[in-house]
Design brief:
Strand content: 35-45%
CATH architecture of the largest domain: 3-Layer(bba) Sandwich
Helix content: 25-40%
Distance between the termini: 31 Å
Number of domains: 2
Shape: globular
Order of helices and strands: EEHEEHHEEEEHEEEEHEEEEHHEEEEH
Radius of gyration: 21 Å
Bound molecules: flavin-adenine dinucleotide
CATH topology of the largest domain: FAD/NAD(P)-binding domain
Largest sheet: 9 strands, mixed
Structural class: alpha/beta
């Protein structure tokens, strides 16, 4: 067992919730140790939409310009299409006089930008790959740190606050003894990409279909595809021939008929909703999908994760900055 440096806050998980928290805490004089089990960002579909509520937080944390600079696309409407009836309607995604934009950026890019910003602010240390496996506690049972596995061996770090941002299958949440009953949906989400059709305008675009709708979202040079498929059918979709996959996607979203469909990184996600009965236990906190997750078609997961990160930082940041030994007064 190797001992490693302490921090004020240990954040377990470098997804949107963890990175958002690191950026939000950067406004306070607080040392953050960020543990992430993946070697690098990317390789997962976790949504590209940054709603005005999220971009408002980014503006407050000083990271919005970097997100824009990474070629985020600004969009303002959602189009609903039907394969026989054509465009059914258009809906605004941004309220009139909204202060902040609706931006779309590939999820991996959002993570890269937030990580770059968190590190640039100078108070966050990243350890990756680092997989949290257990919690450290004091004599009273209060959580004081994290044990985690790295290629260098098993490390332990201590901090005044541990925050679980390790997603829907949170190990930290399990170690805190917070039981969450996940309720699975009857559909799953197939993530793919296609070249951008000439007639595609910068908008979120939903194609209704009785077998499962298709969501198209703008990416810098392509369009992202999210298609609802039957729960448990993942293997079938991943093994399907290119021709069959193409025919099924284009049947549902005819706008893709003349463009190439790309399968690299394709994955089928089984979908569940879950809500933890409490967010604080033994002095540790859970946020993001570790605390609550919902159907991605609502486009709310990142908004909730970032909202929780901002609220938590504002709650504990001042107390941590003042050097309060225990946070029980605010948590
Ligand atoms: C297919 C799909 C599409 C989605 N589309 C949208 C969308 O369009 N808009 C939207 O708002 N939301 C969407 N969501 C939901 C959204 O992605 C999540 O709500 C959001 O990413 C939650 O962020 P998080 O950081 O809590 O969890 P995650 O993004 O899951 O991140 C958790 C992180 O913790 C790391 N980790 C896990 N265990 C450990 C461990 N033991 N030790 C260290 N690190 C660990 C993981 O590697 C990961 O980086 C989608 C989700 C899915 C699955």
């Amino acid at each position: 067992m190797i001992a490693s440096d302490d921090a004020d806050v240990i954040v377990v998980g470098g997804g949107i919730a963890g990175l958002g928290l690191a950026c939000a805490l950067a406004r306070y004089d607080v040392r953050v140790l960020l543990l992430e089990k993946r070697k690098a960002s990317g390789g997962i579909h976790r949504g590209d939409s940054l709603l005005p509520r999220s971009t408002g937080l980014f503006a407050r944390w000083g990271v919005l310009d970097a997100i824009r600079g990474a070629q985020a696309q600004e969009i303002s409407r959602l189009e609903i299409h039907h394969r026989r009836m054509g465009k059914l309607c258009e809906l605004p995604l941004v309220q009139p006089r909204a202060q902040h934009p609706y931006l779309v950026l590939p999820h991996a890019k959002i993570e890269q930008v937030l990580l770059g910003q968190a590190l640039a602010f100078g108070r966050t240390t990243l350890v990756r790959p680092a997989k949290a496996v257990d919690l450290l506690r004091d004599d009273t049972g209060r959580v004081t740190g994290v044990r985690y596995e790295t290629p260098r061996g098993t490390l332990e770090s201590r901090a005044r606050l541990v925050v679980a941002c390790d997603g829907g299958r949170s190990i930290v949440r399990a170690r805190l003894g917070i039981d969450v009953a996940a309720r699975f949906y009857d559909h799953a989400y197939l993530g793919l990409e296609a070249d951008r059709p000439a007639s595609y305008e910068n908008a979120m675009r939903v194609h209704f279909h009785e077998k499962g709708g298709v969501l198209l979202m703008p990416r810098p040079t392509r369009v992202g595809i999210g298609m609802l498929v039957e729960a448990g059918s993942g293997e079938r979709w991943i093994r399907m021939s290119d021709d069959e996959l193409r025919a099924k996607v284009c049947e549902r979203a005819p706008i893709l008929r003349d463009v190439a469909i790309h399968r690299e990184g394709a994955h089928v996600y089984e979908l569940a909703r879950a809500h933890a009965p409490r967010y604080v236990q033994d002095g540790a906190v859970i946020i993001g999908d570790a605390a609550h997750c919902t159907n991605p078609t609502a486009g709310q997961g990142m908004t909730m994760a970032l909202g929780s990160a901002g609220a938590l930082a504002d709650l504990v940041g001042p107390a941590l900055e003042r050097g309060e030994a225990r946070l029980s007064r605010v948590l």
